[in-house]
Design brief:
The complex is a heterotrimer. Chain A is mainly alpha-helical. In chain A, about 45% of the residues lie in helices and about 5% in strands. Chain A folds into 3 domains: about 1-65 and about 120-220, Cytochrome c-like domain (Cytochrome Bc1 Complex, Chain D, domain 2); about 70-110, no CATH class; about 225-255. In chain A, strand 1 (about 90-95) and strand 2 form a beta hairpin. Chain B contains 3 helices and 9 strands; from the N terminus they run H-H-E-E-E-H-E-E-E-E-E-E. Chain B has helices spanning about 15-45, 50-55, 85-95, and strands at about 60, 70-75, 80-85, 115-120, 145, 150-155, 160, 175-180, 180-185. The radius of gyration of chain B is 27 Å and the shape is elongated. The chains are: A mainly alpha, B alpha+beta, C mainly alpha. The interface between A and C is large, with 52 and 55 residues.
Chain lengths: ~260, ~180, ~425
C-alpha cells in the first residue's frame, strides 16, 4: 500500500508538470468564479447572451469565429426567430450562380459566422501586420483560458510601470505574455448597451464575453458533465457488484 | 466488461452458490446494459450530423424558367426536378383516369400551383436519375420522364405509368416564399 | 468421420462448429481451464486492461476516421466538426484522445510490474521482447495519431521528431525528405501518417496475439517469481481471474471516464487547439506526457546524434534486458539489495518525465543528465553486477505453501489485502 501511494504521488507530480510549466510563462491570471467552473458548473445563459452582444459589437470587427454557425446560438438560449434575424444581418458570400459568379445574400442559420476578413493576409494588412486570432477555441487554446482572457481584457494599463520603455504602436497589458500587445484596449465602460439593463462596465463585459467564448469553445460541456455523472455512478454500482461476485468466487477457493 | 461472470457454475454449492448466482446474474445484466449503452453513441455518430441537417433546405428562383422548361437543383445531395409545365402538359396529366395508374394519385395532389411541378428526380425503382429534363432527352411513352436503367416511364405529373418502378416520383416538402421563389425542405 | 476434431461440448451447435473449427476447444483450454498461479496481485490486471484499451482505441478510431479528413486544409476543421456537429462526436474523440494516455499508463504499469517481478527472465525472454515490440509500435502509432488534428503541437511535434532522423550521418537528410514526402511536414506527410496510424494498430493486434501465445506456452509469472510446482499451486483462469480482471477493469473505467467527462483536456496541451502554422513555432514544444522521459533523455545529451542514439537506446536496452540481469531470482521480493535500486530506477523515470516538461536550461539539464545516467546505469551496470554480488532471501518451496501461510510470509500478505477477502 505504501508503495502504491508513493507511485501515485510520483505519478501525480509527473502529470502536474506541464501545468506547472505553463503557469511560469506570464503573470498568473487571478482566478475568477465562473458559472461554468468546477466539475459541475453550467453556462450562465444570460451572461453568455450578453457576451455574444459584446463579441458581435466589439470583437467581431477584427476576430473571426469560423467554427461557429448562427444555428449554434441555440446553445446559449436564443430562439430560432432570433437566430434567423441575427443571421440575416450579415451578407454571406455564396455561389457560383448560374452565370458562374459569386454573389452575396443574407445569412441563414446554417451559415458559419461571417469572418471580418477574407483571409489571413487581408487580416494582417488591416491590422498593422498583427493577425487577430480566431476566437472559436480561444478558451481551450490558452492555459487557464477563461481566467486568462478575463485578465487580458481587464489588464490594460494606460501607462507601463515605471522603468518600462513604451513601445511604438503597442499597448501595455499586465497579463499578456511579454506585456506588449498589438490589440488596443477593446473594452471601455458603457461601450455596449445591454438590453437587460445590466450596467456595461469593462469588468462586466469581460466576464460576459469570456462566458460566451467558453461556451463557444466547449458547447458540449453541459451535456458532457451530465453524462459523466451518470456514467460514473453506473460504473461505481457495477464495480460494487463485480467486487461482490469476486469475493464470493474467491471465498469458495479458500475453504 | 464483455468477459463478465456468466459461467461460474460448478464451483460452489448450497446457499452460497445461489447467492453467488444471483449476484453474478445481476452483475452480468448490469454490465450488458453498460455495453449496450456504450454502443449507442457509436451508432448515432453515423446518422446525419448537425451541419448536414442544417443544410437540409434549398431556395430556388423560378423567374428564369420559361414555360415548357425545367431545371434540376440539388437538395440533400439529390436532384430535384422543377418543371414549368405548359397548359397542354397539365391537361394531359389531368385527363388520365386514376384507374389507369399503378400508383393512383390525382395531379392536383402533386402540385401546389398547377404550372410548377417540383419532385425528387430519383426513380423509385432503384435510385437512378430519369431522363426528360433537357429538350433533347427521351421523355418516355407518356411525355414525362424515362428511366434508362430499367425502363420506367413517368407521365407529365411524374407518375409511374409503365415499368418496374412501384411508385410515383416523390414530391419533396416545399413552400412558395414569394410568387417566384420556393424553398425546398 | 476422419479428420474431425473430437469435441466435448454438449451444445449441438457449438459441437458442430468445434468439430470442424476447434476454436471453442481452444478458448476452453486457453482461457477457461488455463492453469494460472493462484497468487496474482492486482498488478496482474494490467495486461487485460491494455487489451481493452487497444480495442477501445481501434473502435473509437474507426468511427473517427468516418468523419476525419486527412488534408492540411481540412484536418483541423474536420476535427472541430467531429467535436461540434457529429452526434456524440465529442465523446468518441475524447475517448480516443484520453484513451491514448490511459493505454500508456496501463502499459507502463504493466512494464514496471514485469521489471519488479522479473517477468522477462528465462523462459519468458521472447514474451518480453514481443512486449517491447508492442511498446515501439504503440509509440509510433501515438506519435502519428497526435499529428492528425493538425494543431500547432501536432505540426511542430511532427517536425521535431522527424528531424531526429537527420542526425543519422550521410543519409540522414535524405531519410527526412523521404519521411516527409517533401521539404517540410506538409500534406503528403499528413496523408501517410493517417494511413499508417490506421494500419499500425492492426499490426499491434497481431503482435499482441503472439505475446499471448508466448504467454500461454510459458505460463504466467507470479509475485513470488517461482514456477508452480503442481495443480495445488494453480487455479483455472475462469472464473477466478476473469472476475478479478472484470473488477479491475470497472475500476479502471471509472478513472478513464473521469478524464473523458470531467478533464478531457487535462493531459493535452492548449497549443493543439491552435491550427498548425508552419511560420510560428510555439514558445515551448513538449510532447505528450507519455513521451516526456524519452524527450528528456534526448535533450540531456549536448550532441545531436548522441541524443538520438541514447533516446532510441533507452528502449532498445529493454530488448537485451533478459541477458543483462544475471540474477537467477525473478521477484524483487527476494532481492533485498536490488529492490532499492529498482525504486530509484522508478524515481529516475519519473524525474526524467518531469524534466521533459521543463525548459532545457539550468537545473533541469543537470537533473535530466542524472536521470539519464541512472537509467542506463541500472540496466547496463547495476543489474548485471548485482546478480553476481547479491545474496537473495530463501525462496519459498511452492506457491501454495506461501499462500496458505506455511512458509516465511511477512510482507506478501499485507501487500495484497484484496486477496484475503
Amino acid at each position: 500500500m505504501r508503495r502504491l501511494r508513493l507511485v501515485a504521488l510520483a505519478a501525480s507530480l509527473l502529470l502536474a508538470a506541464p501545468a506547472a510549466r505553463a503557469a511560469g510563462e506570464a503573470p498568473k491570471p487571478p482566478p475568477q468564479d465562473w458559472s461554468f467552473g468546477g466539475l459541475f458548473g453550467t453556462f450562465d445563459r444570460a451572461s453568455a447572451q450578453r457576451g455574444f452582444l459584446v463579441y458581435k459589437q466589439v470583437c467581431a470587427g477584427c476576430h473571426a469565429m469560423k467554427q461557429l454557425a448562427y444555428r449554434n446560438l441555440e446553445g446559449i438560449g436564443l430562439s430560432q426567430a432570433e437566430i434567423r434575424a441575427i443571421a440575416a444581418e450579415y451578407m454571406i458570400m455564396d455561389g457560383p450562380n448560374d452565370d458562374g459568379e459569386m454573389f452575396e445574400r443574407p445569412g441563414r442559420p446554417s451559415d458559419r459566422f461571417r469572418s471580418p476578413f477574407p483571409n489571413v493576409q487581408a487580416a494582417r494588412a488591416a491590422n498593422n501586420g498583427a493577425y487577430p486570432v480566431d476566437l472559436s477555441l480561444i478558451i481551450k487554446a490558452r492555459p487557464d483560458g477563461a481566467n486568462y482572457i478575463h485578465a487580458l481584457l481587464t489588464g490594460y494599463r494606460d501607462e507601463p510601470p515605471a522603468g518600462v520603455e513604451p513601445m511604438e504602436g503597442m499597448h501595455y497589458n499586465a497579463y499578456f505574455p511579454g506585456h506588449w500587445i498589438a490589440m488596443a484596449r477593446p473594452l471601455h465602460d458603457d461601450q455596449v448597451e445591454y438590453p437587460d439593463g445590466t450596467p456595461a462596465t469593462t469588468e462586466q463585459m469581460a466576464r460576459d464575453v469570456t462566458t460566451f467564448l467558453a461556451w463557444a469553445a466547449e458547447p458540449e460541456l453541459e451535456q458532457r458533465r451530465a453524462m459523466g455523472v451518470r456514467v460514473i455512478l453506473f460504473l461505481i454500482v457495477l464495480a460494487g457488484l463485480t467486487y461482490g461476485v469476486k469475493r464470493k468466487i474467491w471465498a469458495e477457493l479458500k475453504h | 466488461m464483455a468477459e463478465s461472470t456468466t459461467a461460474a457454475h460448478g464451483h460452489g454449492g448450497g446457499a452460497g452458490g445461489t447467492r453467488r448466482d444471483f449476484l453474478s446474474l445481476t452483475a452480468t445484466a448490469v454490465a450488458g446494459v453498460g455495453v449496450a449503452a456504450f454502443a449507442w453513441p457509436f451508432i448515432a455518430s453515423m446518422n446525419p450530423s448537425a451541419s448536414v441537417l442544417a443544410l437540409a433546405s434549398t431556395e430556388v428562383d423560378l423567374a428564369p424558367i420559361a414555360e415548357g422548361q425545367a431545371i434540376t437543383v440539388m437538395w440533400r445531395g439529390k436532384p430535384v426536378f422543377v418543371r414549368h409545365r405548359s397548359a397542354a402538359e397539365i391537361e394531359a396529366a389531368r385527363q388520365v383516369p386514376l384507374s389507369a395508374l399503378p400508383d393512383p394519385q390525382p395531379d392536383e395532389a402533386r402540385v401546389q400551383r398547377p404550372q410548377w411541378l417540383v419532385m425528387v428526380g430519383v426513380c423509385t425503382h432503384l435510385g437512378c436519375v430519369p431522363l426528360g429534363q433537357r429538350p433533347t432527352d427521351p421523355k418516355g411513352d407518356f411525355g414525362g420522364w424515362f428511366c434508362p436503367c430499367h425502363g420506367s416511364h413517368y407521365d407529365t405529373s411524374g407518375r409511374i405509368r409503365r415499368g418496374p418502378a412501384p411508385a410515383n416520383l416523390e414530391i419533396p416538402p416545399y413552400t412558395f416564399t414569394s410568387d417566384s421563389v420556393i424553398r425546398i425542405g | 468421420m476422419v479428420g474431425l476434431h473430437k469435441s466435448d461440448f454438449k451444445n449441438p451447435v457449438v459441437r458442430w462448429i468445434d468439430e470442424r473449427l476447434p476454436i471453442p476447444s481452444l478458448l476452453q483450454k486457453e482461457y477457461a481451464q488455463f492453469p494460472t498461479p493462484k497468487n496474482f496481485n492486482y498488478f496482474w490486471n494490467f495486461g487485460a486492461l491494455a487489451m481493452v484499451c487497444l480495442v477501445v482505441m481501434i473502435v473509437t478510431g474507426i468511427f473517427l476516421a468516418m468523419h476525419y479528413t486527412p488534408h492540411t486544409a481540412h484536418a483541423f476543421d474536420s476535427v472541430e466538426r467531429i467535436m461540434r456537429d457529429v452526434n456524440y462526436g465529442w465523446l468518441i474523440r475524447y475517448i480516443h484522445m484520453n484513451g491514448a494516455s490511459m493505454f500508456f499508463i496501463v502499459v507502463y504499469i504493466h512494464i514496471f510490474r514485469g521489471l519488479y517481478y522479473g517477468s522477462y527472465k528465462a523462459p519468458r525472454e521472447l514474451l518480453w521482447i514481443l512486449g517491447v515490440v508492442i511498446l515501439l509500435l504503440m509509440m509510433a502509432t501515438a506519435f502519428m495519431g497526435y499529428v492528425l488534428p493538425w494543431g500547432q503541437m501536432s505540426f511542430w511535434g511532427a517536425t521535431v521528431i522527424t528531424n531526429l532522423f537527420s542526425a543519422i550521418p550521410v543519409v540522414g537528410d535524405d531519410i527526412v525528405v523521404w519521411l516527409w514526402g517533401g521539404f517540410s511536414v506538409d500534406n503528403p506527410t499528413l496523408n501517410r501518417f493517417f494511413s499508417l496510424h490506421y494500419l499500425l494498430p492492426f499490426l499491434i493486434v497481431g503482435v499482441v496475439f503472439l505475446h499471448v501465445v508466448a504467454l500461454h506456452i510459458t505460463g504466467s509469472n507470479n509475485p513470488l517469481g517461482i514456477e508452480p510446482k503442481g495443480p495445488q499451486d494453480t487455479i483455472p483462469f475462469h472464473p477466478y481471474y476473469t472476475i478479478k480482471d472484470s473488477f479491475g477493469l470497472v475500476v479502471f473505467l471509472i478513472v478513464f471516464a473521469f478524464f473523458v467527462f470531467f478533464a478531457p483536456n487535462y493531459l493535452g496541451h492548449p497549443d493543439n487547439y491552435i491550427e498548425a502554422n508552419p511560420l510560428v513555432t510555439p514558445a515551448h514544444i513538449v510532447p505528450e506526457w507519455y513521451f516526456l522521459p524519452f524527450y528528456a533523455i534526448l535533450r540531456a545529451v549536448p550532441d545531436k546524434l548522441g541524443g538520438v542514439v541514447l533516446m532510441f537506446g533507452s528502449i532498445f536496452v529493454l530488448f537485451v534486458l533478459p541477458w543483462l540481469d544475471t540474477s537467477p531470482v525473478r521477484s524483487m521480493k527476494f532481492r533485498p539489495l536490488a529492490r532499492p535500486f529498482f525504486w530509484v530506477f522508478v524515481l529516475s523515470c519519473l524525474l526524467l518525465g518531469y524534466c521533459g516538461a521543463m525548459p532545457p536550461e539550468g537545473i533541469w539539464v543537470v537533473l535530466s543528465r542524472v536521470g539519464t545516467a541512472y537509467y542506463f546505469l541500472y540496466f547496463l551496470v547495476i543489474l548485471p553486477v548485482l546478480g553476481k554480488l547479491e545474496r537473495p532471501l530463501p525462496l519459498p518451496v511452492s506457491i501454495s505453501e506461501r499462500v496458505l501461510g506455511g512458509g516465511p510470509v511477512p510482507a506478501a500478505a499485507a501487500a495484497k489485502p484484496m486477496e484475503k477477502a
